[in-house]
Structures are given as C-alpha cells and as structure tokens.
Amino acid sequence: MILAPSLLAADFLHxxxxxxxxxxxxxxxxxxxxxxxxxxxxxxxxxxxxxxxARVSCKPLDVHLMVERxxxxxxxxxxxxxxxxxxxxEAVRHLHRVVEAIRSAxxxxxxxxxxxxxxxxxEDIIADVDMVLxxxxxxxxxxxxxxxxxxxxIERLRSLIERTGSKALxxxxxxxxxxxxxxxARAGADALVAGTSVFRAADPQAEAVKYAAILRPKxxxxxxxxxxxxxxxxxxxxxxxxxxxxxxxHNHVVLDTLINGTLxxxxx
Length: 268
Ligand code: DX5
Ligand code: ZN
What we know:
By secondary structure, the chain is an alpha/beta fold. Helix content is about 35%, strand content about 15%. The longest helix is centred in the middle third of the chain and has 15 residues, at about 150-165.
C-alpha cells in the first residue's frame, strides 16, 4: 500500500520543513493539490510552490490538478519532474489526447473522478492510464468527511481493471484516516492520500509509520488496533506478516502470539 501525504494540510509558513519531514518519513509519494478557484471553489497554490517543493522533495510528486483545462500545464509540470499528473475527467474534453500528451512529456498519466462521476466513464481510457484517483470527498478542501459509498466504487473500479487487464493503480483521496484506510484497502485500493490525518497529527512521522504498519503490502488480512501508538506495539507490528484478523485494543501478548504465527480469535 502506497501512502501519499497531501501538502494541502501542511503548515504553509514552513513548507520546506514539512517537505523534509515527509522526506524522512515512511510515506511513499508527496501529493500536491492544485486548485484554480474555477473547477473547484477554492485556490491553493501554483507553480512557484510546486517548483520549490520539487527541488527539495525526495519522494515522487503525485500532482492532482483541480483546474479547468489542465492540459495547458503539461510541459511545465513535466519540467518539475512530477511523477504523476492527475487530471479530472470532468475538466478535460479530449481525455485520450491529454493522457497521451502527459505520457509523451515523461510523466505517468492518471485520471481523477469526482464522487458523482461513475466508474463507467473510464471504460475506454482505463487501458491507457497508470492510475485512477477516486475522490472520496468533493474536491476543493481538506478535512472533509469520507463518503462511504466510495468503498463500493473502489470495488467496481477493481472489477473494471481486472476485466480489461489494465495495470492502473487505484488511489483514493479525501477523509482518509487509519479507520477509513482499512475499508479502502480491503476494497482494493493501492494508494491513499492523507492530508489532515498525517499533517495535523501530533507526530506526523509516527502517523506515517502507523499507516505503514496497518497497510502492509498484500496482506491476506488486516490488523486494526484501535489504540495503537505505544512504541512496543509498533515494534512488534513491524515484525508481523500475516493475517486476516481484526483486533480491538492493543495487547502485547496478542501481538507476540501473532508474530509466532498462531491464529488468534478476536480480543476485547
Ligand atoms: C481535496 C484534496 C485532497 C485533500 C485531502 O480536494 O484533493 O487531497 O487534501 O485532505 P484530507 O486528507 O484532509 O481529506
Ligand atoms: Zn488531492
């Protein structure tokens, strides 16, 4: 599972410090939310910030353009060395042409769907993209509540990807915290964007470690510790490799047993 903290929730007075924090964390990508005040009812930041961040970020940049006519920015974004360029299907008239242009410019093309846009809109483009970004909130603001119907939408997208043999990753964006992350991961997501829950955590780096611990790649089962957080638990969780089990509460004995490979029943 890939974790992409969204810089939108960072402390903008100290962006350099925030990017360094992500560089040193277990996060995989850095997600940049660009808003134009027209496609969405908010303005965030533009190229002066993207270019400055790109110079210091060690993590691949996952750029989410919530702007009208995003195709006009392909070359400039490519010059920043962005890994992914996410464009909204709702903002592009000739999607196939734009996806090809993004790839030709050296970036990985990704298409984004608002909550009310159905998965079937992707039928004829899914083979050509490297990622689909499903919005689990209406785009424009951080800190919103996860829309529960996204879980079923992820399942529908996963079916489309399997049916067509596409290699597209599924990324989910909005209202992600360690609880919604579990539901989203189980439904078939590959990557998660998390703004508020990472940057506004008391210790953002520790939060990224906790995400990494609960979202281990290709686990058969997921482990949920509702009060995770003590160092001993994290150390033990780091050694686990299994399972198909949900545990409520934390318990060192339980974790020790888990590491020894013994199947457990649910604990209090
Ligand atoms: C919303 C943005 C999201 C946002 C996520 O328009 O696309 O990336 O920053 O923020 P949280 O995690 O706070 O919902
Ligand atoms: Zn985003």
